[in-house]
Amino acid sequence: MKRNILSLAVGAALVAGVSSASSLTLQKTNPHANQQVAVDATFEKDRFRHAINLGEGKVRVIFQLEDAPTALFPAVNPAVNAQAKGKVVGDIDFSSQAAKEYKAFLNQKQNLVISSAKQIDSTLKADIRFDTLTNGFAAVVDKSKLQQLSKLAGVKAVYPDTLMHATMDRSLDVVNAPEVWEMLGGYPEAGKGVKVAIIDSGLRPENPLFSGEGFEAPDDVPTDDYCATVDASFCNGKVIAARAAEIPEGFSVVEEEFMSPMAFNGHGTHVAGTAAGNWGVEATRGDLTATISGVSPAAYLMIYKGLYATPANPASSSGSNSMLVSMLEASVADGADIVNNSWGGGQL
Fold first, then answer.
1. Cα angle for residues 188, 334, 265 (degrees, 5° grid)
2. How far apart are CA 301 and CA 337, in angstroms?
């Protein structure tokens, strides 16, 4: 399964180092032990002042653990070893037996850390796991226990789980899209066969920018996403995958919001249209009309809703770091070639 990721906007602080281990036993040595610049688990009080606060001393945090994530495990990603030898190799196979075994190994190690963490903070609640692009979990913890928790064996670092907000203010002319189309043979070839994942506030699939006319979905679409298990009509030949992040404790959404990839606010639809909307769509606003297109009109779209309308700002969309990372991991595991993240505004 193809896994050439051309753009990943996950923070470097959340990406684990490369593991050279070949064993999946629980006695596996620390893969970072030989790194010249080790990243120690640290605790800085000022970094957690913007963490999602649940009241009564409870905050949301993300634990990064020491073992490398699946994308950096040599048996799953041949490039890990090949790069050291100056070679370029094939794709990451997240569906392989090696990937399944390594993910099970990471889950065991995570369970051990969570068990140890609960001996320090009996109220700790781990609710979101990561194993693809980073290795760790998100949790609700007692803020007064953070320093002790950060020093646990197996913990590489602890980060605040903060809010991110929808942002985007650039389009076709800025990136000289028409000129690039000509180099590719015209707009019908722009992005053809490329899978573009949009991590945002969802999509309105009925918009003509996302019509499946003239498209044929690839054979390797997900079999466990929203389209495959809930509503097949959300996808078509162009929109080939859709998921929505689970709502973790401490994050609130407005009652009207859709608990699905369906967009409540328009930001995600806008972003998806800008990235890969169909060419030649007539758009109107008031008395104005225009023919619009996405940057890569021939590309496939994969929708990952990680931003929701909140009571604090129902006109916009927001999501926690943990929600967004879970959608980033899902998009990569589903086979995205490009991942678009048009959000920011969080505090570190």
1. 75
2. 10
What angle is formed at CA 194 by the lines to CA 230 and CA 172, rounded to 5 degrees? 105
Mean pLDDT, the chain, whole residue set: 84
250 and 296 fall within a common domain: yes
CATH of the domain at 209: 3.40.50.200
How many Cβ atoms are within 10 Å of 100's Cβ, its own excluded? Answer: 13
If you ran DSSP here, which 8-state letter would residue 220 be given? T
Q: Which of 129, 205, 164, 199 is nearest to 310 (CA)?
A: 164
273-305: buried (b, 16+ CB within 10 Å) or exposed (e) per residue?
bbbbbbbebeeeeeeeeeebbbbbbbbbbbbbb
pLDDT-based confidence at residue 89 (cuts at 50, 70, 90): low
The tens digit of pLDDT for each residue in 64-87 reads 999 999 999 988 988 887 765 666
Distances (CA, A) of 326 to 95, 114, 129, 256, 306: 18, 18, 8, 23, 8
Q: How far apart are CA 196 and CA 299, in angstroms?
A: 7
Question: Are the beta carbons of 143 and 48 closer than 8 angstroms?
Answer: yes
3 within domain boundaries: no
Q: Express each pLDDT in 122-152 by its tens digit.
A: 999 999 999 999 999 999 999 999 999 999 9
Q: What are phi and psi of 291, to 5 degrees?
A: -95, 120
CB 319 within 8 A of CB 245: yes
- Nearest to residue 199, comparing CAs of 145, 150, 141, 263? 263
What total of structural domains would you count in the chain?
A: 2
Amino acid 42 reads T
Is residue 230 domain-shared with residue 337, that is, in the same domain? yes
E strand or H helix at 163: strand 163-166
Residues 143 and 188 in one domain: no
